[in-house]
Amino acid sequence: MNLQQNATLNILYLGYWSAREGITHSTLFPHLQALSGFDKVKNIIFCSIERDAVSDPLPIPYPKCRHIPLLSKNLPDKFINKWYDFRHFPATLKKLIVAHAIDICIGAGTQAGTLVLKAAKGTRTKVIVSYFDPHAQYMRALGVWPKYDPRYLFLHHWEEKLKKEAYALFPVSRAYRQTLLREGVSPEKLFTVPCTVDLEKFTIDNPLGQATRQQLGFAPDDWVGIYVGKFGDIYFDDLAFKWFGEIKKYLPGFKLIILTGQDKEEIAGKLINAGFAAKDFFIGLVPHNEVPAYLNAADWAFSLIRPHKFSHAYSPIKHGEYWACGLPVVLPEGIGDDSKLMDENNLGVVIKNVNLRQNHIDKLIRLVTSGKSSEIRKLAFANRNPDTTKNTYKKILATI
């Protein structure tokens, strides 16, 4: 079917986070951008779930796109609030499906996928789940949700329904696609689409990096590491600071940048306990478009995802951003396709059994000093290219 024809398709894309969060801009907006570029697409309704007081629609910087926020009740009890969301949002979404003659509903992740599958029941609307992952299994494997936790039972049930009833699923790693095939999911509905990165915004820029170092009070010849993300839950907490401290002992001049929205004083206290002075680190939360400046100020990056039985299903957006800026990554084994990819290409430091040793630090120094940043950037081009998203949608739209 020729996609260059009169626009006929209306699409609803549901994200599970606020439209104002950085993760929405880095992971969901590339999908909106790709979809808006097809002549066959007429309108795109982008829905986000807003849990704060600010809930006005945002202007979306792509043609054909309109933002309609879904407002959570923000009840004091999180469990009851989630129950309310899954009880009432499908009805709201169904009204949008009918009012806007929606042909395709796309949910970003299994929770959003559950909501659109419930909403599309009884309609002609096809359901696609981008960023499809075993979220319920993550939470159980990490001990966050017990086996008989209602949240686990509910989401696991709907994840199984999505495997059977969705028109298409986008696992984010090749390894998880293989798991889904072994589980009997039809290969025709599986499209591997990792978290992609803007390769123009995230690029190697040494002058920008040196200017940022100067701004932070770090010397041009300091060893500088960076971590973008959270501590705790699916990420290491105490172990992360143990890693930082071990590198500090080996490299006394080691400086650290942490970009996070978590409590600065608590993180600073843990760094000081690990052997850092206040002048040795920067902790802050910056707009997503400023992240490349901080990445370019670093020599290497950390990924602190806790490995578990289902961690091969991950595709952390931060990995693509790190690679695009030429940074080797220190990370555990078993994370998505990426641990194996970096280990086999000798372009990262993969920590087996999560025990960081001196030989890991020695390897990291060799990577930094061997000038492999351009090779590392090629990992982003090969594995996190936005063209993957566009080409996948092209294949799917040709069938609708």
Count structural domains: 2
- In DSSP terms, counting alpha (H) and pi (I) runs of 4 or more, how many helices? 15
Radius of gyration: 22 Å
Largest sheet, spatial ordering of strands: 3-2-1-4-5-6
CATH third-level topology of the largest domain: Rossmann fold
Beta strand %: 15-25%
Q: Give the helix proportion (percent range).
A: 40-55%
- Report the CATH architecture of the largest domain: 3-Layer(aba) Sandwich
| Overall form | globular
List the helices and strands and how they pair.
Elements: E1 9-14, H1 22-36, E2 41-50, E3 65-71, H2 78-99, E4 104-108, H3 110-120, E5 126-132, H4 135-141, H5 150-165, E6 168-171, H6 174-182, H7 206-216, E7 224-228, H8 238-250, E8 255-259, H9 264-273, E9 281-284, H10 291-296, E10 300-302, H11 317-324, E11 329-332, H12 338-344, E12 349-351, H13 358-369, H14 373-383, H15 387-397
Helix pairs in contact: 1-15, 2-3, 3-5, 4-5, 11-14
Describe the structure.
The longest helix is centred in the first third of the chain and has 22 residues, at 78-99. The protein is globular and about 65 Å long. It has helices at residues 22-36, 78-99, 110-120, 135-141, 150-165, 174-182, 206-216, 238-250, 264-273, 291-296, 317-324, 338-344, 358-369, 373-383, 387-397; strands at residues 9-14, 41-50, 65-71, 104-108, 126-132, 168-171, 224-228, 255-259, 281-284, 300-302, 329-332, 349-351. The model has no long low-confidence stretch (mean pLDDT 93). Helix 1 links the parallel strand 1 and strand 2. Helix 4 (135-141) packs antiparallel against helix 5 (150-165) and helix 11 (317-324) crosses helix 14 (373-383). The strands form two sheets. It has a six-stranded parallel beta sheet with strand order 3-2-1-4-5-6, sandwiched between helices. A six-stranded parallel beta sheet has the order 9-8-7-10-11-12, with helices on both faces. With 400 residues, the protein is α/β, with parallel strands linked by helices. The chain folds into two domains: 9-196 and 385-397, Rossmann fold (3-Layer(aba) Sandwich); 206-383, 3-Layer(aba) Sandwich (Rossmann fold), CATH 3.40.50.2000. It is 42% helix and 16% strand. It is built from 15 helices and twelve strands.
